[in-house]
Amino acid sequence: MSATILFWSIAVAQVLLAAAMVVTLYRLVIGPRAQDRVLSLDAMYVIAMLLLVTFGMRVGSVIYFEVALLIGLLGFVGTVALAKFLMRGEVIE
Amino acid sequence: MSFDDVPLWAAILVSALVLMGAVLTLIGAIGLTRMPSFYQRIHMPTLGTSFGAIGVLAASAILSTIGEERLIAHEFLIFIFVSVTTPVTLMLLARAALHRDRVEGSIEVPAVVVRPVDQ
């Protein structure tokens, strides 16, 4: 009983997160200006991180957690670098 | 660990949390697509990074705690990191967008505010 509930709820959550990723990808493609694209990329890495956490719940492995932590770290650095590039025109001054 | 060992109340709790997180993240993504201007759009991903992340990460922590029969809270680390870094990135991005709009002379944002000199 509880295995069925858990299996289906995690599967539905994965489908919803994948749909969120597709919707964000739409904004990434049509985004009228560069800051819209950077914003949707920032949202997309958060969604990818949550999707990896749900994969880890399904498999019961710690490796997915570590990948999610790594995505969180690198996404932060990437968004800061892109915002700085939009502001100044160069990343390292 | 198999899902059959999980008691029913924990299964229902984990399901509710993970579904809440996924639905809120999806609402944030839809808002990111539908909002008309950039300064309104920049609010929407925070729904995914705050309540979406709380739901999914708490569900994962509860499931692994029950599976291993000891406290596992390393998902808390991701949550702290995300909730600390998201305001920083979004504020930098908003300042960059404001700077670009002002340089362009867009009518959407006010020009540089000149404060009155103290009497």
Quick structural gist:
Chain A has 93 residues and is mainly α. Helices cover 87% and strands 0% of the residues of chain A.
Report on the structure:
The complex is a heterodimer of chains A (93) and B (119). With 93 residues, chain A is mainly alpha-helical. Chain A has 3 helices and no strands. With 119 residues, chain B is mostly helical. In chain B, helix 1 packs antiparallel against helix 3 and helix 3 packs antiparallel against helix 4. The mean pLDDT of chain B is 85. The interface between A and B is large, with 50 and 58 residues.
What is the total tally of β strands of chain A? 0
Strand content of chain A: under 5%
Question: Biggest protein-protein interface?
Answer: A-B, 50 and 58 residues
Mean pLDDT of chain A: 88
**Spans of chain A with pLDDT under 50 lasting ≥5 residues?**
none
Structural class of chain A: mainly alpha
The shape of chain A is elongated
Helix-strand pattern of chain A = HHH
Mean pLDDT of chain B: 85
What are the salient characteristics of this protein?
heterodimer, A: 87% helix, B: 119 residues, mainly alpha, 4 helices, 0% strand
Topology, please?
The complex is a heterodimer of chains A (93) and B (119).
Chain A: H1 2-30, H2 34-59, H3 63-88
Helix pairs in contact in A: 1-2, 2-3
Chain B: H1 8-34, H2 38-41, H3 45-68, H4 75-104
Helix pairs in contact in B: 1-3, 3-4
